[in-house]
Amino acid sequence: MTTETATIAKKETKVIIKKPSMFKVIFENDNATPMEFVVEVLMKIYHHDQASATHIMTEIHEKGKGVAGLYTYEIAEQKAGETVTSARMNGFPLAVTVEAE
Question: Using CA atoms, how far apart are residues 83 and 97, in angstroms rounded to an integer?
Fold first, then answer.
């Protein structure tokens, strides 16, 4: 009579959760979109306070573009779309892009 011995190997699995990539929503300066509208959009869609929105608007005006916010891809695309829709509904040519951080 033979006796068999079974060996059970215990294997550990390490789960690594990677942070999602982040994307910048960038406003491009133009000569037709009023500064007040840009500040309003930054406050309503991006939830900046008056001072922060004014600072970003000034950066857009002086440097040609400025970052409205940093979000995951889906949220960045949604906010950019909302911004462009609002601009077009008000007759403004505001250009918004989404770029990887």
Answer: 10
Instruction: Say how many CA atoms lie within 13 Å of 32 toward its Cβ.
Output: 8
Kindly report, residue by residue over 51-74, the tens digit of the pLDDT: 999 999 999 999 999 999 999 999
- Total domains in the chain come to 1
Domain span including residue 39 = 22-100
CA–CA distance, 42 with 96 (Å, rounded to integer) = 12
Tokens at residue 68, please? Answer: 């409205």
Taking the CA atoms of residue 48, residue 29, residue 62 and residue 57 in that order, the dihedral angle to the nearest 10 degrees is: -10
- What is the pTM assigned to this prediction? 0.81
